[in-house]
Amino acid sequence: MAFPKVTKSTTKIFKKKSQTYEDNIGFFDRGDRVEVASKEDGFLDSYYEAIVVYQPFKKDYIIQYKTLLKDNLSGPLKGLVTLSELRPVPPQISANGFILFDQVDAFDNDGWWVGIITGKIGAKYLVYFDTFGVECVYDESELRVHQDWIDGKWISSKDQLVFNLEKYFLEKYDKFIV
């Protein structure tokens, strides 16, 4: 089966501002499991699991990464991050497979990376990463439904898919052809 080519214009329908914990009331406590949204070049649209170790300042936290190691590999990496880089760990959503254009997080290089399903080969899924313009292959076990933390609630990308596709086609075409 041939799938349409995913381009920057088609991936824009899935792009939206993801809010962080700072946009909501409340702060994190020592021992809380969190995800760190990296703001570094080459790591945008990625999330790394961590535990809050300490809060030295009002909007800063020292965290210990779950999967990232120190340069000398002697133990888990710790870092100072701002509140705007943190969000709670999203709840697990059971997914019985994915369909074309589902927005997912793929576990790769020790973190979760936001991408879009572009196809399926056997039991594996093709995922396109807009940030890098590349497509990679993943087992279903390496994927999760993408969720955004908005106004203190988790919003699933599956909940947004129908609305986003409708908006895309309305913008691209004068009307739907059913």
TrEMBL record:
Superkingdom of origin organism: Eukaryota
InterPro entries listed in its UniProt record: Agenet-like_dom, Agenet_dom_plant
Domain (Agenet): give its ranges: 26-94, 96-151
Q: Which SMART domains match?
A: Agenet
Q: Where is the signal peptide?
A: none
**Which Pfam families does the record associate with it?**
Agenet
Q: What is this protein called?
A: Agenet domain-containing protein
- Species of origin: Anisodus tanguticus
